[in-house]
Amino acid sequence: MKILAMAEKELREYVLKPGSISWGIVFPLVFTLAFAIRFGDVDHLAPGLLSISVLFGTTSFVSSSVIFERRLRTFERLLVAPVGYLEIVLAKVLVGSVFGLFVGFTSLIFLRPFMVYGIWNPWLLVLFLILSAMCFSGIGLYIALVVENPINAMTWLNLLRLPMMFTSGAIVSLLLFPHWFLAVGLATPMTYSVEGLRFSMLHYYDVVNPVYSLLVLLMLTLLFLYLSTSRLEDLY
Pick from 107, 145, 206, 228: most CB atoms within 10 A? Predict the structure, then answer.
């Protein structure tokens, strides 16, 4: 109940605002049209575009809310409330995941008219979208907490997010790169999101079995929940 109460507050203060909702619609729309106009058939790009949308949606929201609260010294209000550090982290990740899923499903709505093939397994697609959103939210939260100066959090996020777009197979398949580059791809969290979404939508994968993708996303989510909680304890 405490987690849901904090999440409800975050939703009212940050998500259910015209600016957040419009960004969650305009970003995937522009992103989709940019690739659809250039490539036409977007079926094989769709999983990567979905993963990119969820990545930017979750990390941007979580980091922005934490940066805002740390700069205004309002984050301390949560700390004096009768809630634990893990509960605070879970509430932040939950709301970030909700916003990321909103951006992801908006992207899917825009992508669907340009796709030739149907979605192979919609329920598996939803599962991987949820796991991806939770994993990316955890990453965004941890970076926002670990950076000493909150203003620099977005810089560090972009240093992580932009390379991941090209090392995860989201835009270009990892099979087209030299074999040594696969090690880079397997070290990229976004790879497992792209591979899981690709299997869910198109019933094939490039380099990672969907079972491994699911397990890795789950383990990364738990890892960043733990790291974020530990960082909160160190900060306060």
Answer: 228
